[in-house]
Design a protein that fits this description.
Two copies of one chain form a homodimer.
Chain A: H1 5-20, H2 28-35, H3 39-51, E1 55-58, E2 64-67, H4 76-84, H5 91-94, H6 106-124, H7 127-132
The structure holds a DNA duplex (30 and 30 nucleotides).
Chain lengths: 154, 154
DNA sequence: CGATATAAGACTAAATATATCTTATATATC
DNA sequence: GATATATAAGATATATTTAGTCTTATATCG
């Protein structure tokens, strides 16, 4: 009952892009290094984010990824569900046909409620807010030591 | 990000016991058949429920399981966490040391909030309430066909 | 004591998650 | 157009977790 690593990595990726803002191209390699995600794994995750319309992928020399929307428009929920599919805390939430009678089921109702709450909380959160604060899963904001500084926008 | 089968089975087990009320002894076999849980798997789950103080296990001939508390005192959260451990929706929630600085992390804060909400919702729900209504994961309440009837209290 | 029922843990199988590797394709630059 | 660089896409491999089964031991009733 825990977010997968792929989901976690997806958040980190978008968070890093969000710091650069909408439209700024960042290479896969830079993102991978900064967010501590294996390069090839990041590629797969990026493909999912791309299919979901969250980022755009540019191939070729000087290629990379960039956000298609303003960070304030991108919710935590959309990023997570782009990676792991729609959240369902219990099997019967996602596949009501797995029960004989889920509409009447007292347990099912609780799971539905909890699921809705969770999705609502994740939807309330946007990446502009997240990016404006520090995050433990990324290298810190630009600072004294220099080589930790994000690449400048062009 | 989904409840495991063991967790689901634990709920079914307690739900079935709750229908019989606190203290009523029900054989493992009956529970297994009624809740559609493999007998030996149920045994393992019962041990966890027992360690958590939710049920009592009686060995020997005419053995079985019984609730130690009134169903109204047993929450959905306690049963689930007896089986799968404390819920943590993201790794950093359960193991803050997995991040360099989780107290300052914006993402971490959201997961904490979501986690608390989820646990609160599950804690609000007790098994008296759940048992008073139909549940899709169990054979129905006693009814016309006869052989689906719960065993009488002794 | 014998029959019955669960305990406890070893063991197996299946599913899922995680990571990597390889070949193909796209783009910038010369 | 040729070359270098970067990502795409999917196959493959590994590890972890989940799910289920089996065996031997133990407890209780009658």
């Amino acid at each position: 009952m825990r977010l997968t690593r792929a989901g976690e990595y997806g958040i980190r990726c978008v968070l890093h892009l969000a710091r650069h803002g909408k439209g700024t191209l960042v290479s896969r390699k830079e993102i991978a290094v900064r967010t501590d995600v294996p390069t090839h794994f990041l590629a797969k995750i990026a493909q999912q984010l791309s299919r979901a319309g969250i980022i755009e992928i540019l191939q070729g020399a000087n290629g990379g990824y960039r956000l298609l929307a303003d960070p304030s428009e991108i919710t935590l929920l959309s990023v997570i569900e782009a990676i792991i599919g729609e959240i369902s805390l219990n099997d019967c939430v996602g596949r009501p046909e797995s029960c004989h009678n889920s509409t009447l089921c007292s347990v099912h109702r609780i799971w539905n409620k909890a699921n809705q709450q969770l999705r609502a909380t994740l939807q309330e959160t946007d990446f502009a807010t997240l990016a404006s604060e520090d995050a433990c899963c990324l290298t810190p904001f630009p600072e004294a030591d220099g080589h930790n500084r994000p690449i400048e926008k062009k």
